Here is the input.
Amino acid sequence: METLVIQTLNGLVFSMLLFVMAAGLSLIFGQMDVINLAHGSFYLLGGYIGFTMIRQYENYWLALIIAPVIVGTIGFIIEYAILRRIYGRHHHLNQVLFTFGLALVAADLIRWNWGSYVITVAAPPQLQGQVPFLGIQFPVYRLAVITFGLTIGAILWIGIERTRIGMILRAGVSDAKLLSGFGVNIQLVFSGVFAMGTALAALAGVIGAPIHSLYPGLDFEILILTLAVVVVGGLGTLKGAFLGSLLIGMADTFGKTFLPEFALFLIFAVMASVLILRPSGLWGLRGQR
Amino acid sequence: MTKEKPAGFNRRELLQATATVAAGYTAVPLLAACSSSDARPAKIGVLLPYSGIYAVLGESITEGIRMYLDEIGNQSGGRRIEIITEDSQMMPDVAQQKARKLVEQDEVDFVAGIVSTGVLYGLRDYFDSAKKLLICANAGGNKISRELRTPYIWRTSFSNWQPNWPLGDWAYKNVAQKVFMSAPDYGAGHNMVDAFANSFQALGGQILGMQFTPFPTMGDPAPFITEIQGLDPPMVFCFYSGASAVSFVQSYGEFGLTDNIPLVCAGFTVEEDVLPAQGTAALGALSSLHWSLLIDNPINKRFTAAYKNRTGKDANVFAVQGYDTGRVIAELLIAVQGDTSDVNRMIDYLAGISFDSPRGPFNLDSQSQNPSQHIYVRRVDEVDGALHNVVIEDLGAFTDPGDNSLG
Here is the structure.
């Protein structure tokens, strides 16, 4: 019984990390109708920049702020310089090829700069060590990850549902052209959203680094899991990203606990079942139409 | 205007794009293969992962091969030696395609490399029917020395049985009589666990449980560590490599197990390529391997110093395997006086190759087609401010039995 509670906690930690990733991917899709296959690369880039910051200034909290800002800026530039040229439904293939190409280039650039050895990042001193919990020792940092995830979720929810910028974003999801007709600079909104989405990926990268380390190949590992989340949860909604993350995170953890040989299979079995029963995802944007 | 229904990607567009990319990709090597010179160099096709989670292994092996070849001036047996590298991407189908390219287009004299057992097994039939020599510089799948043995595949690395069978015996006598086992769910993971279990159980050791984890990507190891924590065994045996080795050992420390449950493992788990990243979580881990950075022999001292000088990194077991692969090929070229036309003659000479390697005495065993070599028990300790594997016992030379009688 205790083990079950602890495994649930493990599942929650993993879910929250996935949620920060999926929220960014979902935000970009909902707003811009672009599937960003380089999302995993922004995660990894964020993690590595965070690592460099921590080594330089020995301050995790600074890295947690600066890495997303740098990566978000890179995202902004990419959107401004290239991505906006290939918007629109008939450009879907171009978008996929472009973002996939971007992921490959990023993987090589990252390896070129940081090498291919596995790099670990220490948790901040305040969050190191373990707390006794139900007869075992549970790492403090993992509890903090749950808090990070919930906090980021709450901020995003308030930002989207309760602020003027959020209102513009929600309107953009419904009809970008009409919004533009009302005098909103939709290009700027798109650039901002893409920067925001990539910054979220970088944030996840810094949060995830002390748990998952950093190494070449992690970008696609995390991308695939994030895609599984948005397929299950549905693209374009925060709720979909949140609940999808919980479902995939728990499926992964309990799959590993009870059917370790089939753990990976289980995630994709969940994904396939959702695709068959509800192609637009359980809480997806398209499902509401 | 409302948004249209979800857009499916145009299948034809995708196919066209794929075909264009594929055509561009294959044309380059074709053109390169057309130019040839008269004094034909001996070509080694090096097939290794240069991307993804085992990129470090690929890089280390390549660096080892190049280092040996540089030491002998890139020629042997009267032939200049050339290397052509290809990325196997750790995928059996990609490796198959690249192996064909190396053999049929580049017309290499040998193929060397191969990191993962799955890739090695996938290539076995091709080399067997093409009658080309494959010198395996890492993948340790037991079957290649046993039921899948072919005269055309020889190993300079190890069989998965080799480090683990002696360790099971040693761990029973020196650490604990009960064990929980953890390994990735693929050929090598099962091989290593079976070998350890065989000798451990032969002495009366008891296995409390086993977990086989997803491969190649384990993801978050926390659920597995929690399972171990719940059972609280007196000893854990594990095998992991590369990024999974870092994740597993790091979580082992994160959940506070490092100080409480002795970790006994196949040496790759805490090898020099991952040890700096694992940090103090690996402290005290006991492992067995056919090499250690700190083996005290003159050849190893020279090798490790030269490698560090060349790359700025400490050597690791994969670099040693690459170095010895270079040496085996060079020695073979000397033996056949540069004549690589008769593969059967080369095979006859391979069986006799022996030399002093950084790992100690190295003999290519003609029966298992795999080295007979010493196995060392090592413990992770702090040496001069850094973590390294200190040799605590030399268990002597071991040769793969060539069948499944000992696990």
Observations:
- The first helix of chain A runs from residue 2 to 32.
- The mean pLDDT of chain A is 90.
- DSSP finds eleven helices and two strands in chain A.
- Chain A touches chain B through 53 residues (CB under 8 Å).
